[in-house]
Amino acid sequence: MNKKLIGQRLLELRADKPRNEVAEAVTISVSALQMYETGQRIPRDEIKIKLAKYYKKSVQEIFFTSKEHEMQG
């Protein structure tokens, strides 16, 4: 898992929504979301699921590259 790539995807998904709005919706702190978006940390599995549901994407789309996904499949 590439932290920077995941952070970039999360930033793109959030677009112009306020960070606090997303953090509140998925019940995490704003600072945690910021760390995920800047590639400092990768969220725990339960947070990955919440973020994926919020953005209406699959966990694989957000957190795994197509190469990693192909290797597992």
From TrEMBL:
Residues making up the signal peptide according to the UniProt record: none
Superkingdom per UniProt: Bacteria
Domain (HTH cro/C1-type) ranges: 21-62
Name of the protein in its database record: Helix-turn-helix transcriptional regulator
